[in-house]
Design a protein that fits this description.
about 80 residues, mainly alpha, Arc Repressor Mutant, subunit A, two-stranded antiparallel ribbon, 4 helices
């Protein structure tokens, strides 16, 4: 697991706010293994933003994706209500 943590950490250092699918592709690992590592180290090594799909970054990395932040903060896709 430590090797997987190191690979993901290095990738996210260069590419914060990445989806698990991209992490898998770039480090050459199965999605199940990457997700297991991300979620079991949530808050310790990695942080997630959003739900479907979440964007991942390293703990201590304060980079926030403008598009994701704006979509969540303003609820762009929600219909207006009178």
């Amino acid at each position: 697991m430590e090797e997987m943590i190191a690979k993901i950490t290095e990738f996210l250092r260069k590419n914060p706010n990445s989806r698990a699918r991209l992490i898998c592709k770039e480090i050459g690992a199965e999605k199940k293994a990457v997700n297991s590592c991300l979620y079991s180290n949530l808050g310790k090594h990695f942080l997630k933003q959003g739900e479907t799909p979440p964007l991942w970054r390293n703990v201590g990395d304060n980079t926030v994706s403008d598009d994701t932040h704006n979509n969540e903060a303003h609820n762009i896709d929600a219909p207006e209500r009178d």
